[in-house]
Amino acid sequence: MLFSIPESGWWLIAVAATVFFMISMPALAKGMKLPDEMRSTLERNRTGRWAFYLLTPVAATAVLATNLLRPEPAPAILFLYSVAFASIPIALFPVRARMLKDYIAQQQNPDIKIKLDRLTMAWVAGFLSTVLLVAVLALMATSYGDGN
User: Fold this and answer.
1) What pLDDT is attached to residue 82?
2) CA distance 31 to 37
3) Is 34 exposed, middle or buried (0-12, 13-18, 19+ CB in 10 A)?
4) Of the chain's two ends, which shows fewer C-beta atoms within 10 Å, N or C?
């Protein structure tokens, strides 16, 4: 049932997942309260923004092309690719304020080592692990259900 979508549909889903990632990652910082000096520094850093928008699609295409050289069917690889790209911004959204607080503390005190927030680490690792487990189980159930 999962892979009853034609291969062209999975390509569209993969492109949509990449676009979702490209839009939502920079949008995570929207509406967050930043100190004025940090906001102006981030706004001046146009090079990093251009690198993100230019290099992410190139790197994603390289990873996808390399994986598509493998003998597995393309829809399965495109499914895993789409799940990975869509789940990262979703995992970061609930803990973005905590991550921003730690980032600001690190920028204001670069000589002091900031301990990572355990709740943030647990949430991101737990969410991404769950997503990975569910995706692999869906992939395994579909493969075995088709008699392959």
Assistant:
1) 93
2) 16
3) middle
4) C
Query: Whole-structure pTM over 0.90, yes or no?
Result: no
Mapped onto helix, strand or coil, the DSSP state of residue 45 is coil
Give the DSSP letter of residue 31.
T
Task: Give DSSP secondary structure letters for 81-96.
Answer: HHHHHHHHHHHHGGGH
In the block, which residue shows the tokens 């291969």? 7
Do residues 20 and 85 make contact, with C-beta atoms less than 8 angstroms apart?
yes
Which residue in this structure is represented by tokens 């769950």? 130
Burial label, 14 (beta-carbon count in 10 A; 0-12, 13-18, 19+): buried
Token representation of residue 38: 């940090």
